[in-house]
Predict the structure.
Amino acid sequence: MSSNNAFPKEELYSLDYTIAKFLLPRLAGLQNMLVQHMNEAELVEDIGTMIEAFEDVISSIDNTEVWKESTEDGLRLFAERFGDLWY
C-alpha cells in the first residue's frame, strides 16, 4: 500500500470490479430499507436494475465485452439516480 493512498494499489487494476463489489451490498441494503420504510416503488425498481448491472460487472471481471445491454442501462440509471440514493 502506498503511503499516499488509503487503499491497496491492487484495487486499481479493475476499479470497475472494486467499485461494484463495494456498491452491490449497499444498494441491496438501501433497497431493503426503502421497501420496509418508504413508499418509493419506482426507486426500489430502479435500484433493482442497478443491482443487476453491478452483479453483471462483478461476474464479467476483465471482460466488459460480455456486458449485456441491460448492464449498460443499469449503469446509466445509477448515474442518473445517484442523488436519490439515500435513506
